Amino acid sequence: MNTLIYDGTFEGLLTAVFEIYERKLYPVKLLKGEWHTSALFEEVIPIVTDEARASRVLRGLRKKLSAAGVQRLYISHMAEIAGEDCNVLGFIRHVFDSDQNIEEDYGNKYVMRLSEILKMVRREKHRMEAFVRFQKLNDGTFYAAIEPDFNVLPLLIKHFKSRYADQKWMIYDITRAYGLYYDLHDTQFIEMDFAELNKPVNVIAAYSEDEGIYQNLWKNYFASVNIASRKNTRLHVRHIPKRYWRHLTEKI
Amino acid sequence: MNVDRITEKLNILADAAKYDVSCASSGSDRKNKDKGLGNASNGICHSYTEDGRCVSLLKILLTNHCIFDCAYCVSRKNNDIKRAAFTVQEVVDLTINFYRRNYIEGLFLSSGIFKNADYTMERLVHVAKKLRIEHNFNGYIHLKSIPGASEELMREAGLYADRLSVNLEMPTEAGLKLLAPDKNRQDMIDPMRFLNQEIIRNTEEKKLFKNAPMFAPAGQSTQVIVGATPESDQQVLQSANYFYKNFNLKRVYYSGYVPVLADKRLPALNTAVPMVRENRLYQADWLMRFYGFHVNEIVNNQNPLLDLDIDPKLSWAIRNMQAFPIDINKADLQLILRVPGIGLLSAQKIVAARKFARLGWEQLKKIGVATNRARYFITCKSNEFERRDLTGQNIKQFIMAQSQSKYIKNTQTQLNLF
Q1: pLDDT tens-digit profile of A106-152?
Q2: B197 phi/psi in degrees, rounded to 5
Q3: Taking CB atoms and an 8 Å cutoff, what residues of chain A touch B101?
Q4: A103 CA: distance to closest CA in chain B (Å)
């Protein structure tokens, strides 16, 4: 067993694939992270991300997969789901080891797993499109905090940009400590220091005058549309799992 | 803004609108225009009520004043309830401000009939027009087409709304006459026919001129109330099928009657909402629209009622054992779709995956097939398959013994056997 350590980027992953084929390393275990010689007993091969090698592998993938197939592979990796590197690698090996395009070979465990990962990621993306709750700040910016299970913020750009084209907005991923900001022209990724902002005085002062009114109206609306005689808590919680509640205006 | 008054109105008029079950916000392809607000090409449920229904649109009545006296309706003329009415501007402000905070996909606006049909329809159209023209709002708008409104108003509504709907209310004309003596079924069908023709005409126009204006791009839908009158499932589904076929409806919604009023023509106030029946009707509706089933295969003179214990596909399968077993590695997609426990996506995956290698039970499970049901009806790459010559009734018993209905907690009559 060879253990490979790479930097977690997609290019890093592709470089690792290059090394595996060139040095005929098999079986392998692929890990994200930094290399500490002292911490590990087994032999560990650190992978240094190499643009040229990565792009050779990418060209190879493009020959064997459809454009959408490459995109799906990229999304599955970018979501940063713990412990899935080996499955993504298994998928790539299956791509290169077959003569034909294997995107729909759902009988294969790696193809199936990738389709499951993709389903999880897309559902999380869709949930964020649904559960983002903007709050209007004094300067007219609409701000929302999220804590998605996976790294889906980059997948949200297109949706929110084409929807809220006439308002400034920001969506901040608290877990991963970075956000997406739209300034009426373009979006950019940003990082913020919340230490000052989070003081209660600053938080209240930051909201626009009518923010509280509309939050209340929304809560009222949410309560009014419920039909008590059809109560179905199990279904309710299946649709909105409790971990999302703390950012949902109507559930706070 | 008088916050207290707006809040009170919102409570009254949202409460009165909630029995309209449609909340779809999909099916349109309205794009964001000139850096305006919103688009309507997604279909997103932004929240879910505690009864588990989706909240996608701001669903309200413009007013709950009504000149009609329909027995099943909370807003009926003779019901002693608080009445309220929004101004056009109030609805516009609520919609825009909710939309900007990502609470909703758009507006679902219905209304009680005040004065007359045209007067009411005019105001609904006015709200939609204001949103589209003054606020460059491109979110989803669903308007009720008020039965009896003029064709000019209907046409204008179609220019601003994504979807229009007329509720049939009762599955049959007799049911309607019984409970809504002021309403006339023909008055509901006329606008549906008119809108259908306009939609077809617009589609043709769009083929010739790319910039032809959109006309109700998400089509029409309707709703029938189930369980208030004694119609059989056969009558309900036959009628749904008729409207799908003749008016190109996008959806028929089935609303289990919620007893809100005491009236000797209606089920008593403590009657349970027929939720299982409603669920079975939706399953049957899906079979007709996506699984290639003809309505007569699901319900017919021998079987006028849907089986409440098991889903309609399983129910069809055990009545038609001669069609099974089928070989999952060879059968056509159309046949695989008829196997209980295999859904649309699983069926497509099976057909794609078997080109690479023949599939066995483990792989079918991974793909998402409910093998506890499907195993009685299929063979695959495995020596294990159902060899016994089971009757449909046997299979039904086996499946029911293994699975626990999600509705069981709602029925008090279940006996504990052990």
Answers
A1: 999 999 999 999 999 999 999 999 999 999 999 999 999 999 999 99
A2: -65, -40
A3: 133-136, 142, 214, 218, 249
A4: 9
> Which pTM was predicted?
0.90
Test the A interface: residue of B15, B21, B60, B102 with most A CBs within 10 Å: B102
- Chain segment B354-395, per-residue pLDDT in tens: 999 999 999 999 999 999 999 999 999 998 888 888 888 999
Host H or E run for residue B221: strand B220-226
What is the distance between the alpha carbons of residues A154 and A157, in angstroms, rounded to a whole number? 6
Given this model, what pLDDT does residue B19 score?
85
DSSP character at residue B337:
T
Contact B100 A220 (CB under 8 A): no
Q: Which of A163, A171, A239 is the best substitution to test chain B (most B C-beta atoms within 10 A)?
A: A163
Contact call for residues B255 and B165 (beta carbons, < 8 A): no
Q: Which two tokens stand for residue A99?
A: 């003569």
**Mean of the per-residue pLDDT values for chain B?**
91
- Say what the ipTM of the complex is: 0.91
Helices (H), ranges, B53-184? 88-100, 117-129, 151-160, 173-179
Sequence-distant (6+) residues with CB within 8 A of A186 are: none
Q: Phi-psi category of A158—alpha, beta or left, where left has phi over 0 and alpha has psi -120 to 50?
A: alpha
